[in-house]
Each structure stands twice: as C-alpha cells, then as structure tokens.
C-alpha cells in the first residue's frame, strides 16, 4: 500500500522529477554542443533557457520552500515538537544557512505522514 502524501510532498516530488529530467536533457545538449563548439558562458545560458532547466530549478525551489513551510506547521501539533520547540524552531530558522541543512530538512519533511 502506498503511503498517503500531503500536497506539499507530492508537489515537491513532481518538481524534483521535472528538474532531474531537465538536467538530463541539458547534459545531453551540452555534450552535443561540445562536439561542435566551445561551451562559453553565452552558450551555457542559451542551453539553460532552451532546455527549461532554469524554470525547472525555480519550480523546485518554490516546491522545497512550500514543503519546508508545510512540515514546520504540521509538526507543531506533535508532542515531540512541544518538548523540543526551541531546537526545532532554530533548525527551521537556519534552514538556509547551508545546502546540507536544507537538504536534510527536506528529507525529514518527506518522511512526515
């Protein structure tokens, strides 16, 4: 039986899949371009726009932020939150202090049922 996921979790999964797909397309396009010309910043910027990678990245960031916000509001109803409120709130307040902390919080958010 598949776990029931919240809308924020589903939206994140959808955005992540789209981002990964766009990244694969962009990698293939980079390799194709590299065979015929040097990859300059201008060429890279064209590929980022043409493949939809930029839009997929923006959608992923929006979905991540919504997931983090949803998880913070959801756990406020848990007993463990009330017992560790300061530490948990500090973790959410520092979510953007490093990519590793952000990714860890996203992974934890995906485990909420």
Strand share of the residues? under 5%
> Would you list the SSEs in sequence order as H and E?
HHHHHH
Mean pLDDT: 93
- The overall strand count is 0
Euclidean distance between termini CA atoms: 14 Å
Shape: elongated
Structural class by SSE content: mainly alpha
Number of helices: 6
What does the largest sheet look like?
none
Give helix % range.
Answer: over 70%
Instruction: Round the Cα radius of gyration to an integer and report it.
Output: 18 Å
The unreliable regions are none
Main features:
113 residues; mainly alpha
Notes on the protein architecture:
- The chain is mainly α and 113 residues long.
- Helices cover 79% and strands 0% of the residues.
- It has helices at 7-36, 41-50, 53-75, 79-83, 85-93, 99-110.
- Helix 1 runs antiparallel to helix 3 (53-75) and helix 3 crosses helix 6.
- The longest helix has 30 residues, at 7-36.
Short description:
By secondary structure, the protein is mainly alpha-helical. Helices cover 79% and strands 0% of the residues. The longest helix is centred in the first third of the chain and has 30 residues, at 7-36.
């Amino acid at each position: 039986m598949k776990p029931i996921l919240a809308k924020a979790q589903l939206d994140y999964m959808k955005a992540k899949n789209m981002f990964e797909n766009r990244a694969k397309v962009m990698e293939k396009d980079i390799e194709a371009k590299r065979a015929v010309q040097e990859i300059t910043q201008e060429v890279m910027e064209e590929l980022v726009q043409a493949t939809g990678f930029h839009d997929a990245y923006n959608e992923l960031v929006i979905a991540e932020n919504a997931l983090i916000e949803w998880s913070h509001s959801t756990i406020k109803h848990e007993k463990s939150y009330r017992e560790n409120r300061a530490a948990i709130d500090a973790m959410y307040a520092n979510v953007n202090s490093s990519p590793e902390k952000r990714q860890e919080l996203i992974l934890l958010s995906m485990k909420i049922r």
